[in-house]
Specification:
The protein is mainly beta. The chain has one helix spanning 2-27; strands at 32-40, 43-47, 50-54, 57-62, 64-72, 82-88, 93-99, 108-116, 123-129, 134-137, 140-144, 147-149, 155-163, 166-175, 179-186, 214-215, 229-232, 240-243, 252-256, 261-268, 271-275, 281-285, 289-292. The protein has a 7-stranded mixed β-sheet with strand order 4-1-7-8-15-9-12, with no helix packed on it. A 5-stranded antiparallel β-sheet has the order 22-21-20-17-23, with no helix packed on it. Strand 13 (155-163) and strand 14 (166-175) form a beta hairpin. The longest helix has 26 residues, at 2-27.
């Protein structure tokens, strides 16, 4: 009887030891995150000078800090390469979106990644090159870069980055409790702006893919629409988003411009439903409109 007890104790001890060894070995394995790269035009992706593929790229890489280089595949594209620093967190996503141009000054790079924080809040941090850009979250001005928003609610948000002389960048982000979403953006000069007008610093940039939207058009010479209608007011971004539903978190369907006039299809909670492109309808916030009856 005593032998059986000793045998059972030894067997249990062996099982525990094997389980502990398996767990130890699993923790010693590579800690990985996910890297995604989108670009225009197609590029070869180098990570620490190692060719890892072409865009669009999506794969697991070992967590850590890297030098990322994007090289156009075709010499006929006549666009410059880009190189910058990125970080990949364990079990987290790092996303790079590049719009390469014939000059570094007109190249836009977005890099966005997640970082674990100690609080249960969700945070959003934005830096730009150059800094001093205006940050709008869900069409509301929230400060100038560099800035960190510690009171942003979890969920989907539309973010616009505007700066005089530079192209506006529009991102769709999702914030998560317990994490800081970091966006590092290299802004591109608008056409007609020269390097003597604005001198950007040479730093890496980062972000999510810009939202692809359809821009509504309306001529100021056209007759007024049927009353009641609304007139679009001036906005910080120079345009007003049309959304699929009457709320700031709804998907962006298009854009309308200050001074344009649209007949009202429906009204709900301070939002107006309009036919914004002759075919489709969407909702605009009454905050940036004037109703004419």
């Amino acid at each position: 009887m005593r032998r059986k007890v000793f045998f059972l104790i030894a067997l249990v001890g062996l099982v525990v030891a094997v389980a502990a060894l398996v767990r130890f070995l699993s923790t010693r394995g590579p800690k990985t995150g996910e890297l995604r790269v989108d670009s225009t035009p197609t590029v070869t992706v180098f990570l620490n000078d190692k060719n890892i593929g072409t865009s669009p790229y999506k794969d697991k890489v070992e967590a850590g800090d890297y030098t990322l280089k994007l090289v156009p595949q075709s010499a006929s594209d006549q666009v410059v390469s880009w190189e910058g620093k990125i970080s990949v967190g364990q079990n987290l996503l790092t996303y790079v979106n590049a719009n390469l141009s014939s000059s570094e000054l007109t190249t836009a790079i977005d890099v966005v990644w997640l970082e674990k924080i100690t609080s249960n809040q969700s945070e959003f941090s934005v830096t730009t090159n150059p800094d001093g850009a205006t940050v709008l979250v869900d069409d509301t001005v929230r400060g100038v870069t560099p800035t960190t928003l510690q009171d942003i609610s979890p969920g989907d948000h539309s973010v616009s980055i505007t700066s005089n002389g530079f192209q506006t960048r529009t991102l769709t982000i999702r914030t998560t409790p317990g994490y800081k979403l970091i966006a590092n953006l290299k802004l591109a000069l608008t056409s007609g702006t020269t390097s003597s007008d604005i001198t950007p610093t040479a730093t890496a940039s980062a972000s999510f893919a810009p939202t692809k939207t359809k821009t509504a058009t309306s001529s100021s010479t056209e007759p007024d629409p049927t009353k009641p209608y609304i007139v679009i007011k001036e906005t910080p971004t120079g345009f007003l988003r049309v959304r699929m539903d009457p709320e700031v978190s709804a998907t962006e369907a298009g854009r309308v411009n200050p001074g344009e006039k649209y007949s009202i299809v429906d009204t709900q909670n301070g939002w107006y439903e309009i036919n914004y492109d002759g075919t489709n309808t969407g909702w605009v916030s009454g905050q940036y409109t004037q109703k004419v009856e």
